[in-house]
Task: inverse folding
């Protein structure tokens, strides 16, 4: 999924503007998620300047003149976690509307003007934030800044129901293409709805429900814009081939006159805690094979256990020698695929394991094997070599994240939003280096031994394949 | 491989915009344009209601490519890029799935996957262990016309990483147990294709347009062929095509050419050359009158569209006019197909088109995933656009497409993976390194008349294959009413279904 600050945008799926990032952030562990390289090399610092305009807009500048290109990346500190009841999917729908023109930009011209300048652009939404970005030959930078300022300051004068209705249809098709018409596509949202309590920011999916998308009104658009799309809720990151003095003048000229908005409503506080009891779900789908999903509550990003949980996911299913992959897929050949994933988001997190049995094997058989491996992890911990593989592969991703201006611009925004420190890659990498085998054993016990949510996706009419107990 | 993707559709590199790298003799970069005007200073009385006037784009200094040939015929192409301590090594072998024999489809992709499943001195698990321990990535895959083995590594550990890379390329053991394991995995993957309408559409479309010719066969085979492939088949693919005289090794990153030449010479110098046969691409069937091929996917929320015909080879003399024409039709976000079907009608999340330019003529394909209820309306709009592109294109639309293609160029050379990707496209099809020196100028030379000529030559609305995979019960009646071509119900192999 897009917008993992470690993984350059090359990994992005087609259709980012709209593509929902349900699993945010680092892809440490899913099977064969392309661990890319770098070992023994220190992560360089990113020399940057950060300042704030009087209207509250934060600006981050980083020069990189290696190629005559530049990226502009704007984060608004609002995501699907901020949505009101009955309006799931709205933050992302709103993202789409931001490309439909503003006071001085007629419908369609946002994209046409950028393409004529050799620029590409996109945006994405997740539970925590919405980002918008352009990447282009360096001479086109003023155009991108002017377009971004016009929609930040003057979206509503030309807003109408036609724009909303059009993008509502596009987003519904995005949901069909990414969720409804995809095997196992509804598994994620089905799990989240039970894993997190009602009202929790991550209890619903970023793409939202068809019913709620239908319900979104023009007033919703106006209120959302006035509440969240103000300079004091945004950060502008500019990375690449530019001269800082002239760019600062342009930023002041285009963004300086946009009025500060009202104070941003705080999110309800969230307490990370395990699900109260083991819960079993079943979902029928148009699939050839059943699939077993486990999910546990964990902790938010940058919590003291966050890095250990990421590495534990790798040890379980990150490569061919990982515990679950080697036993279920490689040695026994009873599973077609297995993945493990820790997702530490801004206010909370989850740990998920997914297994697809090969034909002739059952979800219950998978459950028994996975549980045996979890028990082993809790009882015996991991070896030095297992930890080293996970750490070395993770460390390599940090260097790769610095290869392109677009990835760097997003990364500066990511760390700035989560930690207030744009250049944090080096310290972030150090968190993973510090993890010990004792840490992994401890977090296995602390999180995986707790109650979990179990979902079995079964072929239509095959509910008898549902896993209904914690199989030991 | 680095390279941005569109928010819709296929990766750029797979479509008509498969532009390639430029460059030149050892040690010299080439500047395509000399202007480097500073950003215009904002005037005090600037009109904020109008988009700013932009300065001239900077000239792109194309990366210098150092070419060295080893005595055994292995060509080395080295590009220095010292921004980060990283390097990409990409071995391009100039054959892939087009070499599969009837009844043994999927041999090339299976053989290539097996490279990492054991060498004469390392087991599958040992290879994976070293890869993860070093924090490197080795990727091996076969496509049409080429097989690539890629190493992405930090340069601090080049010795260990290159030793592993050379081992999987030069000394694969094709262990019987691993072949059986991959066979089982592949059979399960083939079963799971039934779940995915877009993949069903891709297979049916290729089979209908190409018949039994090479590009009509699925790269990952089918069930009978997967059961039929023997160890001798994968060995034959490897022994026949993995030859230094049939390969180029691209090296991009924080490296020095002399050092690389020495290392590569030591590792690959003993690789034995041998004449390599030309594959038989076969003859695709003549295009029939426009026909709708419907594949039933009960309950599908969307209908997968693939529309087109046999297109052109990479060496077509119409490369530049076709690239511009396709950018207007379906090769960019503001293209006609996407603007109509997504941004005006809202029938889809994205529509696009592309020419798969290969060694033998590849397909022209227009694609989209369309909400089931608008299947007929979308087909009518597709046909409208495929007819309209044959009319003269307004000048401003033409100029936008040309500038988009020309000005995007610098971004393609930003990362080591990006540069390697550009070069591998060149190498696969024997396009000279000078390609990019004239790219901007040759795109600029494309006229309205050129675009109309190639549209009329290569897009014939009366001879299109239209594959639609969707919920037959609901979409067939409306498709019949739409009256676009005859309707034939087929299966995933393109054969008539009951």
Result:
């Amino acid at each position: 999924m897009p917008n993992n600050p470690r993984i350059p945008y090359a990994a992005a799926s087609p259709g980012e503007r709209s593509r929902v990032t349900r699993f945010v952030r680092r892809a440490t562990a899913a099977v064969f998620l392309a661990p890319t390289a770098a070992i023994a090399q220190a992560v360089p610092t990113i020399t940057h300047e950060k300042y704030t305009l009087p209207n509250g807009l934060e600006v981050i500048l980083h020069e990189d003149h290696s190629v005559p290109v530049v990226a502009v990346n704007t984060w608004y500190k609002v995501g699907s976690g901020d949505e009101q009841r009955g309006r799931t999917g709205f933050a992302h729908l709103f993202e789409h509307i931001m490309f439909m023109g503003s006071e001085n930009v007629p419908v369609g011209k946002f994209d046409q003007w950028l393409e004529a300048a050799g620029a590409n652009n996109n945006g994405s939404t997740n539970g925590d934030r919405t980002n918008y970005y352009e990447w282009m030959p360096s001479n086109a930078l003023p155009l991108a800044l002017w377009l971004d300022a016009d929609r930040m300051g003057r979206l509503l004068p030309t807003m109408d129901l036609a724009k909303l209705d059009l993008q509502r249809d596009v987003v519904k098709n995005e949901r069909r293409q990414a969720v409804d018409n995809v095997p196992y596509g509804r598994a994620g949202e089905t799990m989240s709805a039970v894993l997190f309590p009602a009202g929790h920011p991550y209890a619903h999916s970023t793409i939202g429900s068809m019913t709620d998308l239908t319900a979104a009104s023009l007033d919703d658009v106006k209120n959302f814009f006035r509440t969240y799309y103000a300079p004091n809720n945004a950060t502008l990151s500019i990375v690449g081939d530019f001269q800082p003095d002239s760019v600062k003048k342009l930023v002041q000229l285009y963004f300086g006159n946009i009025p500060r908005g009202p104070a941003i409503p705080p999110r309800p506080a969230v307490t990370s805690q395990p699900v109260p009891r083991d819960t079993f779900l079943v979902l029928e789908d148009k699939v050839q094979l059943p699939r077993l999903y486990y999910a546990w509550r964990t902790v938010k990003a940058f919590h003291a256990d966050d890095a250990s949980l990421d590495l534990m996911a790798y040890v379980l299913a990150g490569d061919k020698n990982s515990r679950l992959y080697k036993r279920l897929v490689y040695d026994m050949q009873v599973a077609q695929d297995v993945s493990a994933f820790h997702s530490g988001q801004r206010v909370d997190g989850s740990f998920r394991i997914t297994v697809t049995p090969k034909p002739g094997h059952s979800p219950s058989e998978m459950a028994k094997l996975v549980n045996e491996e979890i028990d082993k992890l809790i009882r015996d911990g991991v070896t030095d070599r297992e930890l080293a593989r996970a750490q070395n592969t993770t460390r390599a991703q940090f260097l790769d994240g610095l290869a392109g201006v677009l990835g760097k611009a997003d990364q500066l925004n990511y760390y700035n939003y989560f930690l207030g420190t744009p250049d944090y890659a080096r310290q972030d990498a150090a968190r993973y280096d510090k993890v010990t085998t004792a840490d992994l054993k401890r977090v296995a016990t602390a999180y995986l031994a707790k109650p979990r949510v179990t979902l079995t996706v079964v072929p239509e009419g095959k509910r008898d394949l549902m896993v209904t107990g914690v199989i030991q | 491989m680095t390279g941005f993707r569109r928010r819709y559709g296929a990766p750029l590199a797979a479509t008509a915009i498969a532009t390639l790298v430029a460059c030149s003799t050892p040690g010299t970069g080439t500047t395509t344009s000399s202007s480097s005007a500073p950003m215009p200073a904002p005037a005090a009385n600037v009109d904020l209601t109008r988009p700013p006037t932009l300065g001239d784009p900077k000239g792109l200094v194309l990366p210098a490519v150092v070419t060295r040939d080893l005595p055994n015929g292995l060509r080395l192409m080295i590009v220095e890029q010292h921004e980060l301590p990283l390097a990409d090594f990409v071995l391009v072998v100039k054959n892939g799935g087009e070499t599969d024999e009837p009844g043994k489809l999927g041999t090339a992709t299976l053989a290539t996957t097996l490279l990492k499943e054991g060498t004469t001195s390392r087991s599958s698990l040992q290879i994976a262990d070293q890869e993860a321990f070093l924090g490197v990535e080795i990727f091996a895959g076969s496509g049409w016309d080429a097989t690539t083995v890629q190493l992405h590594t930090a340069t601090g550990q080049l010795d260990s990483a290159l030793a592993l890379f050379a081992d999987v390329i030069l000394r694969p053991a094709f262990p019987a147990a691993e072949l059986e394991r991959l066979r089982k995995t592949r059979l399960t993957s083939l079963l799971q294709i039934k779940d995915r309408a877009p993949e069903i559409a891709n297979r049916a479309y290729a089979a209908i347009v190409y018949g039994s010719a090479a590009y009509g066969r699925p790269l990952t085979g089918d069930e009978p062929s997967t059961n039929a492939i023997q160890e001798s088949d994968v060995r034959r693919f490897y022994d026949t095509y993995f030859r230094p005289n049939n390969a180029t090794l691209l090296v991009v990153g924080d490296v020095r050419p002399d050092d690389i030449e020495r290392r590569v010479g030591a590792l690959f110098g003993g690789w034995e050359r041998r004449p390599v046969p030309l594959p038989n691409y076969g003859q695709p069937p003549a295009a029939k009158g426009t026909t709708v091929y419907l594949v039933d996917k009960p309950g599908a929320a969307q209908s997968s569209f693939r529309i087109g015909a046999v297109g052109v080879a990479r060496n077509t003399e119409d490369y530049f006019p076709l690239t511009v024409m396709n950018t207007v039709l379906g090769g960019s976000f503001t293209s006609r197909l996407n603007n109509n079907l997504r941004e005006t009608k809202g029938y889809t999340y994205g529509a696009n088109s592309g020419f798969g330019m290969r060694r033998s003529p590849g397909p022209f394909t227009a694609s989209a995933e369309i909400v089931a209820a608008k299947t007929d309306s979308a087909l009518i709009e597709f046909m409208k656009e495929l007819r309209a592109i044959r009319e003269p294109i307004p000048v401003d639309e033409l100029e936008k497409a040309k500038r988009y293609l020309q000005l995007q160029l610098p971004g393609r050379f930003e990362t080591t993976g990006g540069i390697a990707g550009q070069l591998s496209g060149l190498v696969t099809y024997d396009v000279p390194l000078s390609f990019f020196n004239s790219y901007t100028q040759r795109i600029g030379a494309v006229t309205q008349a050129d675009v109309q000529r190639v549209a009329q030559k290569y897009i014939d609305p009366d001879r299109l294959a239209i594959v639609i995979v969707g919920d037959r019960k609901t979409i067939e009646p409306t498709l019949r009413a739409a009256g676009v071509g005859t309707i034939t119900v087929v299966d995933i192999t393109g054969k008539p279904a009951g």
About this structure: Residues 176-192 of chain B form the longest helix (17 residues). Chain B has 16 helices and 14 strands.
